Structure formats: structure tokens, C-alpha cells
Amino acid sequence: MRHSQLRAFDAVAREGSFSRAALLLNLTPPAVTIQVRSLEDAYGLTLFIRSGGKATLTEDGQGLYDKTRRFFIEEEEIRDHLSSSSALDIGHLKISADGPHVALNIISMFREKYPGIKLSVSLGNAESVRQDILAQRADVAITANCRTDDRLVIDELSVQSMIALVHREHSLADRSEISLVELVDEQLILRERGSNTRRVLDKEMKSLNLRYGNVLELGSREAVREAVAVGLGIGFLFEHEILGDDRTCAAFIQELRNSNRDMIVCLKSQLKRRVVKAFVEIARN
């Protein structure tokens, strides 16, 4: 068992792909494949299920990954401890976010202060981002309304309200505020289950004892915006997610003012790492 084999395995497990792991390690995909296969052959294990360019951990792989993550985090902490400089000149930080709007501002400030740190960013819905943190596929996350967990550090960054996005020729287009009761009989465009937008909306609908009527479900905020723009119905977004588009108009939803809380999230164990702590401090400030 060599350090390079464990490093290759850990990178593939984090990235879920041999090709992305190769980019992370500045190696070729065949080189990463050889390292992982040598590790598997040496111990008679199958660590990944390979399919369609994706690498999914087996049960043996997951058990090893839990240990390699701890190992490489400890290794980084040792390197930090031994370093005589407090500057973060080199390193890597993997960020997961449920949208670019809050995340990109923080990333921009971090890169300006620590240009030597390599950043990689993955986007998903709120639930997938939370799972990225818990499974250690990401070091830090920027997401909304994250559920509390004893394993997590969670800090609130900002508050937003939900809005209804309507086509400019719709009868509600001149309204600045709309109640959910007024929308239940409309053609509605919803985000997928697992998204923060859908979770907040579902919770309020349930509390008001309201049910959806005609619904079109789409998997991204970009798709929701375009569907509204071409007249397919009324969509739901948070106020920072609105883009300038003269085909649509936005109105606050009366019951969902200040319903979204953007947060910075990481594992408590990860906060020991200087690079994670630096990113969290920039987000907090």
C-alpha cells in the first residue's frame, strides 16, 4: 500500500470520477486508474463500481474512504502545524452550493485573499449539498435552511423572501405582493423535491391546508425562469435568483417573506483545517 495509491483512491471517491480525480491530482486518468487498480489487486477488493464515467463506492470502498478522509485531513493539519508561515499559499478546497448567487461573492473574496488555493465548486439542490458535506465529498457548503445536526457548524449569512414570477402579460403581473391562496388555481411551475425552494413552499402550503392544482415540475431555477418567460405558468424563486428579463414580473409572496436563510456549513471536524476556517471566516464577515 502506497501513499500515492491512497491519494488516488481518495480523490476518485471525493470526485465520483476517475477523470475529475486526475484533474485534481494533475495526473492523467490512466495513471489514476493504475493506482486504484493496484490497490484493489493488492488486497483483493473492489472499491468502486465503474459505470458510464462515474465511480460509485462499494461497501468496502466506503469503509476505506471514511478512513482516508480522516488520514488526509490529519496530514494537512500536520503540514499546517509544521509550517512557519500563517499564509495559505497552496492547497485545495472543495465547495458545494445550492446556487451561485451567494456562493460566487464569497468565492471571489476568498480567491482575492488566497490566490494560491485551488477551488472546485459543485452545484446541486439543498439536500444534495447537505449530503455532500456529511459524506465528505465537499469541505464546505453554501446552502439555505440547512437542518441542524450535531456534526455540523452552521452560520446564517443572509435572509431572502420568496417571490412569484409571472409572465408580463399575466393578469397578476402588476401586483407587488400575492398570497398563496390566490395562486392555487393557476398553472404552477415548481422545483424538484429536495430543493430548498420546494421544501419551503411545500411546508407553507401544508400549514395553510392548501393543495397544488396544475403543476409542472422542473429541475433547476434556470428552467423555471425560462418556463415562466415563455408563458407556461407561475414560478417560485427567491429574490436574489431573479435575473433581469423583460418577459417576466416578480411579486413577493405574502406568507413567505424572509423565509430563506442562506448559510455556510461544514463538518465540525473540518473546521480544524486552516483553509476551511479561512473560508468560513470570510463568509461570516
Automatic annotation (TrEMBL):
Record's keyword terms, sorted: DNA-binding, Transcription, Transcription regulation
Domain HTH lysR-type as annotated: residue spans: 1-58
InterPro entries, per database record: LysR_HTH_N, LysR_subst-bd, WH-like_DNA-bd_sf, WH_DNA-bd_sf
Top-level taxon in the UniProt lineage: Bacteria
Protein name: LysR substrate-binding domain-containing protein
Family: Belongs to the LysR transcriptional regulatory family.
Entry-linked Pfam families: HTH_1 (PF00126), LysR_substrate (PF03466)
Entry keyword Cell membrane: no
Organism: Kiloniella antarctica
PANTHER family attached to this UniProt entry: HTH-TYPE TRANSCRIPTIONAL REGULATOR, LYSR FAMILY TRANSCRIPTIONAL REGULATOR
